[in-house]
């Protein structure tokens, strides 16, 4: 979520008033804003997307709730020591959190372990351990519409009789100390991005948020006029018309068997009825196609922790496979491929398959990704029910990612086309009229230059390096992962360095290359990549032959508040994943909206950015998905590129020989070995096209006017990538609710009778 203060002032229309009031107190608002900690309750794009979605849902007047876990420790703080990443605990609650309100009156029990008893009246889950879920509510204000939605985060609490009910008669002290075991559930965020780690505590976290949330939703449904009761029993027929639940990846997949358990075991609905309601309630968004990221939980772990849920999953699977078998008799391989249970070695539950079978809508997050989901990853399911599969291209909130972080550009745009674009970003197309307006071109360039000077001062303060603010700011910020190919950027840096040294007199367009992002603590290769970048920076930044032509900076502790500083100052945005691996990306959209040009592959939302702006206004290079597929068919041979490309050979040899690690020449052996022998992401195959494309970038940068015209065309084409557009599509195609642009009257004005409720009864 990042910081909340400035976003709240902007959405409430109070920023200028607050700035002025604080100034009159002799304080500086920007200094105050810097004191607030980021709420870093997610890993990368997935968590930030949810935050943008909350902003858009409130701005569109949807009655929506965001549910999650109130981690005591969020994503770790990254320190760079001697070029290595070191993790520190993110004690973000140390000084309290003024934006949250604990709601003990809505505390709910969540059950774990135990066993299942079957009887004539049905199944009973008994002898369980109970953990309490305490909700904390954070307000989510819409933009200038007097709507405030809620983000409800659950914190784990031990019940007061924890470990004191049973055998533990004597050891009272130990029993109280053991309360930590229960409360550890919400202690810390697992720091993996695009990687599955099948740990028991993680499964506990996933079930914890799901069980508490579903109880909360059902309580709210029963309290509403829709949850009509026939004497005692609630009628749930209207449930899917009143409630829509969107599963953000498979992490909350246990919601499907949990809702079935509530309907069948507790509310005593017949299975078929319960299953129909469940399917119509859930929709699933897939966020990655990387096989190592797909959640596959061991059956024995689920059996131990959630025995009743395993039985329900088996029943769902049996009925699912019976249906497949009736359509495709004797096709055992299809049954194996489509089963929710993977046999062979340890039996595992494929959570994506569970989500597909248990949802009425499945979507990818960019056109190309949704195609890959349909035609490759889940082709058997899409062949069966093609109508379930959709696309919803991701977006970003223009409030945080333009108004808040780049007020200079936001104001300049407003002078030209008015202020309405903030709520309807498609209006940015009006900027096309000014693409040849010399004054506007100069003003856009001036805003960028001011942002660069400000960020250069920040860098000089934090990193003690002299930055040339007229150099091209070439920025690559995102989680560190092999598929995102920070290594390819690194090879380009080394190539530029070698060219400068080979011919110091030759014209070279000065660059400041900024790379930033966190590596998962257990991801050895990603940590080596960080060390390599820092080792290269050490050599480049201290070579007198290079001077101010090339500087390399590794941005420490990349997070939302740092993104808000670096993105407005960027000239060139690096979006260079291997085609077919980045589901969408959202950083790409933030850079586009803030006046950077993109160098990128035809991957994720880059494809649609090129479609909107015109491919000639992005620097597109490298293999397309078809080329990657063809190369896989032929077999990728890294040696072939190394032998054929002298500059690539030189760069790799320097890494291999210890040129960047003279004290330990073998330091980067693992990296080099990976590049030659098991590089799934084919860095060498795109190197030549990437370097050539970078030459085109430098050439254009020399012509400030031509560069800025492309910038304007990009900004004018960025409207599609508002999360407001994305959410309108979810609302229309999946949740079946109508966004409302009615501005609720402010609390100091009396409301008309009958206007006390928004027209949408449905909650997403």
UniProtKB/TrEMBL annotation:
<dbReference type="GO" id="GO:0005980">
    <property type="term" value="P:glycogen catabolic process"/>
</dbReference>
<comment type="subunit">
    <text>Homodimer; enzymatically active. Interacts with PPP1R3B; recruits the phosphatase PP1 which dephosphorylates and inactivates PYGL/glycogen phosphorylase.</text>
</comment>
<dbReference type="InterPro" id="IPR000811">
    <property type="entry name" value="Glyco_trans_35"/>
</dbReference>
<dbReference type="InterPro" id="IPR035090">
    <property type="entry name" value="Pyridoxal_P_attach_site"/>
</dbReference>
<keyword id="KW-0119">Carbohydrate metabolism</keyword>
<dbReference type="GO" id="GO:0008184">
    <property type="term" value="F:glycogen phosphorylase activity"/>
</dbReference>
<keyword id="KW-0663">Pyridoxal phosphate</keyword>
<dbReference type="InterPro" id="IPR011833">
    <property type="entry name" value="Glycg_phsphrylas"/>
</dbReference>
<protein>
    <recommendedName>
        <fullName>Alpha-1,4 glucan phosphorylase</fullName>
        <ecNumber>2.4.1.1</ecNumber>
    </recommendedName>
</protein>
<comment type="function">
    <text>Allosteric enzyme that catalyzes the rate-limiting step in glycogen catabolism, the phosphorolytic cleavage of glycogen to produce glucose-1-phosphate, and plays a central role in maintaining cellular and organismal glucose homeostasis.</text>
</comment>
<dbReference type="GO" id="GO:0005737">
    <property type="term" value="C:cytoplasm"/>
</dbReference>
<keyword id="KW-0808">Transferase</keyword>
<feature type="region of interest" description="Disordered">
    <location>
        <begin position="738"/>
        <end position="764"/>
    </location>
</feature>
<keyword id="KW-0597">Phosphoprotein</keyword>
<dbReference type="GO" id="GO:0030170">
    <property type="term" value="F:pyridoxal phosphate binding"/>
</dbReference>
<dbReference type="Pfam" id="PF00343">
    <property type="entry name" value="Phosphorylase"/>
</dbReference>
<keyword id="KW-0328">Glycosyltransferase</keyword>
<keyword id="KW-0321">Glycogen metabolism</keyword>
<keyword id="KW-0021">Allosteric enzyme</keyword>
<comment type="similarity">
    <text>Belongs to the glycogen phosphorylase family.</text>
</comment>
<feature type="modified residue" description="N6-(pyridoxal phosphate)lysine">
    <location>
        <position position="590"/>
    </location>
</feature>
């Amino acid at each position: 979520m990042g910081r909340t203060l400035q976003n709240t002032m902007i959405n409430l229309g109070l920023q200028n008033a607050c700035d002025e009031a604080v100034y009159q107190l002799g304080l500086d608002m920007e200094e105050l804003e810097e004191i607030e900690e980021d709420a870093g309750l997610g890993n990368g794009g997935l968590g930030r997307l949810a935050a943008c979605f909350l902003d858009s849902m409130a701005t569109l007047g949807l009655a929506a709730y965001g549910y999650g876990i109130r981690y005591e420790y969020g994503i770790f703080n990254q320190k760079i020591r001697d070029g290595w990443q070191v993790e520190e605990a993110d004690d973000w609650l140390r000084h309290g959190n003024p934006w949250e309100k604990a709601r003990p009156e809505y505390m709910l029990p969540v059950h774990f372990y135990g066993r299942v008893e079957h009887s004539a009246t049905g199944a009973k889950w008994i002898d369980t351990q109970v953990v309490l879920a305490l909700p904390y509510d954070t307000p989510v204000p819409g933009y200038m519409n007097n709507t405030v939605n809620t983000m409800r985060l659950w914190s784990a609490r031990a019940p007061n009789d924890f470990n004191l009910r049973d055998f533990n008669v004597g050891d009272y002290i130990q029993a109280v100390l053991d309360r930590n075991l229960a409360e550890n559930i919400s202690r810390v965020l697992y720091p993996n991005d695009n990687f599955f780690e099948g740990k028991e505590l993680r499964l506990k976290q996933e079930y914890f948020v799901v069980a508490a949330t579903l109880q909360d939703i059902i309580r709210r449904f029963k309290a509403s006029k829709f949850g009509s009761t026939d004497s005692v029993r609630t009628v749930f027929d209207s449930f899917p018309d009143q409630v829509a639940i969107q599963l953000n990846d498979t992490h909350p997949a246990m919601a499907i068997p949990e809702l079935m358990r509530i309907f069948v075991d507790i509310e005593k609905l017949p299975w078929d009825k319960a299953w129909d309601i469940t399917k119509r309630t859930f929709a699933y968004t897939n966020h990655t196609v990387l096989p190592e990221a797909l959640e596959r939980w061991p059956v024995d772990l689920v059996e131990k922790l959630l025995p009743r849920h395993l039985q329900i999953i088996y029943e769902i699977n049996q009925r699912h496979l019976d249906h497949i078998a009736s359509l495709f008799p004797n096709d055992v391989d299809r049954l194996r491929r489509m089963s929710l249970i993977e046999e062979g070695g340890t039996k595992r539950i494929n959570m994506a398959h569970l989500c597909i079978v248990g949802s009425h809508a499945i979507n990818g997050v960019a056109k190309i990704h949704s195609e890959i989901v349909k035609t490759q990853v889940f082709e058997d399911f899409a062949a069966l029910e093609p109508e379930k599969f959709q696309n919803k291209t991701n977006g970003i909130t223009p409030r945080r990612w333009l108004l808040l972080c780049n007020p200079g550009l936001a104001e300049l745009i407003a002078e030209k086309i008015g202020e309405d674009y903030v709520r309807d970003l498609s209006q940015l197309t009006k900027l096309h009229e000014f693409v040849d307006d010399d004054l506007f071109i100069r003003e856009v360039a001036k805003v960028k230059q001011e942002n660069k000077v400000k960020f250069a001062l920040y860098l000089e303060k934090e990193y003690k390096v002299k930055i040339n603010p007229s150099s091209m700011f070439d920025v690559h910020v995102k989680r560190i992962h092999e598929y995102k190919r920070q290594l390819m950027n690194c090879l380009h840096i080394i190539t530029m360095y070698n060219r400068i040294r080979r011919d110091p007199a030759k014209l070279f367009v000065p660059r400041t290359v900024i790379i930033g992002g966190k590596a998962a603590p257990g991801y050895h290769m990603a940590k080596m990549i960080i060390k390599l970048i820092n080792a290269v920076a050490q050599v480049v930044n201290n070579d007198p032959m290079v001077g101010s032509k090339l500087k390399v900076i590794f941005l420490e502790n990349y997070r939302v508040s740092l993104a808000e500083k670096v993105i407005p100052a960027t000239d060139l945005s690096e979006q260079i994943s291997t085609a077919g691996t980045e589901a969408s990306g959202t950083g790409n959209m933030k850079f586009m909206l803030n006046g950077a040009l993109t160098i990128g592959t035809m991957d994720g939302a880059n494809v649609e950015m090129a479609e909107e702006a015109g491919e000639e206004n992005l620097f597109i290079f490298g293999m397309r998905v078809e080329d990657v597929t063809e190369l896989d068919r032929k077999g990728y041979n890294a040696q072939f590129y190394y032998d054929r490309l002298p500059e690539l050979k030189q760069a790799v040899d320097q890494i291999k020989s210890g040129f960047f690690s003279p004290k330990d020449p073998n330091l980067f052996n693992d990296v080099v070995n990976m590049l030659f022998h098991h590089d799934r992401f084919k860095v060498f195959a795109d190197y030549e096209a990437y370097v050539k494309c970078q030459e085109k970038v430098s050439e254009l940068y020399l012509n400030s006017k031509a560069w800025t015209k492309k910038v304007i065309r990009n900004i004018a084409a960025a409207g599609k990538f508002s999360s407001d557009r994305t959410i309108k599509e979810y609302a229309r195609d999946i949740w079946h609710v109508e966004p409302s642009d009615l501005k609720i009257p402010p609390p100091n004005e009396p409301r008309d009778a009958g206007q006390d409720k928004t027209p949408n009864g449905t909650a997403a």
